[in-house]
């Protein structure tokens, strides 16, 4: 018999939550012991015997949810946004008194996306040029995407630390906007196209060669392997971890 | 024995000219009867017996070269830029008196590039969204590229004629330049990357599908099949033809 | 007020049929007057006043459905497979007596896919090399895909007619299968990858350049623009048309 | 003043050697103190004062060249093939007596290619499916490429160690070769296309997402940043290092 982890899910009626119910049910080593919606009381978590709480709720309630879990000795895996510096500091303080409890806060559960950003940043100091193209459905209201901005920041930090100069660019005549936006010295281009979901391509170029790292998200299902990886590993990572890459084996 | 066409080349010492010498020499059905540089007299064209003159010179001399050829009953294939409306009008007038003579003026001899633009324009009225990404080496001084601007104009004309609305775009928060430049309603993004030469991608999207038409120019050699196609077909196209697509069989 | 076309749908309970119900309902110029499932009688079509019948049923019933429509003076748009030469011949015979009635039989309603195949075939005679990569989800049981085989056949026919030699290939040492399958002289490679739906890339190469024509189908919704285009145009195309490209304006 | 490293080049008249002469000359921190061709004596290395010897010769002479360098206390950077297990063992024995001397033997100096293979291997255990497409010019005689075989082996080792099952594949009807070659359980597809140089794409897929890692080599110049990185770092890596990745900072 496979050893079981008992999991409680908060936000079970949202779109991500519904996917997570399916994914946990399909995992042979996980048992879903509670699935709570907006109006359900957290108290039922205690009687459920959950070892791990997954929070896929809303920014307004995520902090209280996680505090409740930690105070009751349960680990937490959190996909909800809204964790600013103040919230993170308060959480770390709380965890200091609970040395065995682990919390993972992951702004992005798509394994491929997390890997793509990490690889692009690491490679960027070996190439003269780097630019980012992100492509999304036309209903998206912000450009560039948050993921592209974060990827550009990681790249910029890596290149600055290694003393790599800016990507060369001889442009003297530019139609407004042609060369994209500038995020900490990295050009980011945002395509909006009917039919697409969420895609990102990092282009790295040097004399006679190009390295391209592309990630495509076709579907919300792409977040589930990351959620499961978080559930299975949170107990082994006591304290606070921000970002799924903290659980990935990326040493090369 | 293969029937031979006699070809004279003007601008034989330039980079394109040097490629053309090699390409004509390698073609079993073409004989290079004259290869003139900057200071050579056009008079030698007459004694060379050339049937077709290829002009790969500079804007300053191309008009005089082509007039000389036409006046002496030779067809002309022209890759030099600088043919504005006035020059074209004067040439058409001259050709009116020489009904058997053909002239091809081609701003772009890369077959693949000409095909890509034609296909993209034709397809564009069947899709909700269309955007262009062009990618070049970082020494390029203008953005977007001339080819991208022409492709966007062809697409815009085709969509307008068919009554297709603008590509949908819900962007309300944009970092300056993120959404690229706007060429007659078509978004064009310009990437500059070390290692690249000249590349263009047209992305067309509709519900649940995407069509991508991409052209890569790796090398000046890519212009030669178009030059040879021009040489072989110019005699069969009397009068003035602008654009290599006029010689391509694109009826689908 | 927009003039309305009255449409009846056969196979309304299938997956394609359900999408079609939504697409017709959403179209301002179309009225769905009947939506029949497996056990419903065709007789109700007559009283519904349908001008156009859309058949998205099964190979076993499609011929009888289309004959019924034609005999009652209704146009038909057919997405069901199973129309072999014998069935087509019988249908043409029937249509000969009904000169005003149009039937469209389309094995593929994805506009982008139909365009991609047509463009690839037309371009293929201008390039030395051509290969096809098709990529699908790992549950697909046949390799290569039917669309890839048809695309290869179109390319082969076009190149043969133009006298273009085979793509060059110096391979002397090959691990079994590395160079893909051979469909009428065109190499076809089949990738099966979790996360994908249905994708095809035609690569065309010549000296110093490459033309790539790629189509991605992410979702069944991609067939609906083609279905609507068929409905709107079938009355203007009396007689039998096989293939959606017969309705597309592809003259370049 | 920039501190200088004194470099001697063996194989200076070959194609790679000629590129290396240019690259070393252009590097402000490197001085080329000797450039030897086939018939030149190694003795001149001693008088040249070279600290580092770069070997870009042929399999027949590389072992003797490297031994000579090590015996004279010079570091060596080696791009020549032909280093089998026996040669490597003899070299390690020699180096054991020369603890301060470093030797780098790199079968592939293209930084981007080395990074791409390392990233693909590391990512492969997080995805259900992985396949490789390699694309080369049509004069290549072997399929798949050596780089693709090595990449597949790295991926296979990583997945096996992590207990990841084979990529799913429901194919029951296959036209011979359609699914590519099988290298230790990884499917590898080889495209040969006029216009191309050397390209490789690793496709990784899971539920609803895809990660693509692509490397393009357009030109021999792409090897030079790797050669320079080797020269600059060999003194800091005493003993034998096989593979440029041993010098790259890939810890993520």
UniProtKB/TrEMBL annotation, chains A, B, C, D:
Positions of the catalytic residues: 136, 140
Residue stretches making up the Dihydrodipicolinate reductase C-terminal domain: 114-243
UniProt-annotated binding residues for (S)-2,3,4,5-tetrahydrodipicolinate: 137, 146-147
Localization of this protein: Cytoplasm
Primary localisation category: cytoplasm
Pathway the protein contributes to: Amino-acid biosynthesis; L-lysine biosynthesis via DAP pathway; (S)-tetrahydrodipicolinate from L-aspartate: step 4/4
NCBIfam families given in the database record: dapB
Its job: Catalyzes the conversion of 4-hydroxy-tetrahydrodipicolinate (HTPA) to tetrahydrodipicolinate.
Protein name: 4-hydroxy-tetrahydrodipicolinate reductase
Lineage per the UniProt record: Bacteria, Bacillati, Actinomycetota, Actinomycetes, Micrococcales
